[in-house]
Amino acid sequence: ALTASAFEKDRKIVLSAGCDDFIRKPFDERELLNKIAFHLGATYLYEEPTASGENNRLNSLEDIELRSISEQMAKMPSLWVEQLCYAAIQCNDTQMIPLLEKIPIENVDLSRTLRELVDNFRFDRIIELAKTIEQ
Fold first, then answer.
1. Residue 89: which of 29, 131, 119 has the closest Cα?
2. How do residues 76-107 score in pLDDT, each as one tens digit?
3. Residue 109 contacts by C-beta under 8 Å, 6 or more apart in sequence?
4. Adjacent-strand bridge partners of 3
5. What does 72-112 look like in DSSP terms, one character per residue?
6. Are the C-beta atoms of 80 and 99 separated by less than 8 Å?
7. Torsional class of 47: left (φ above 0), alpha (ψ -120 to 50), beta (otherwise)
8. Of 94, 60, 81, nearest in space to 127 by CA
């Protein structure tokens, strides 16, 4: 079972309902894949990193974009950043949408990127971005 619940009592209920295991959100992709491998005997084949600079170029573009988004987030009120982080920790996309609507129109890149992260349930990335602002 993959759940947003944070309580141990819920683990017992889920397991007694017939589930073999229990993972809480936000979860680490490796943890999920390891659980699948353990319970289903799955094995994974991973692509070897290419020697070309393509992966490095993509990573550096992503880093540049995230730096830009982080800079835009830093201009938002600290309470807004805290609320966004809290909603992301709760994996609560419905709580996040009104927060995204408060982003000024001139920060369209911030709004677009955060909306994409919410739509793709990448709350972990939103938490990372918010934590860089809080530090």
1. 131
2. 999 999 999 999 999 998 999 999 999 999 98
3. 68, 69, 72
4. 24
5. HHHTS-HHHHHHHHHHHHTT-HHHHHHHHTTS-GGGHHHHH
6. yes
7. beta
8. 81
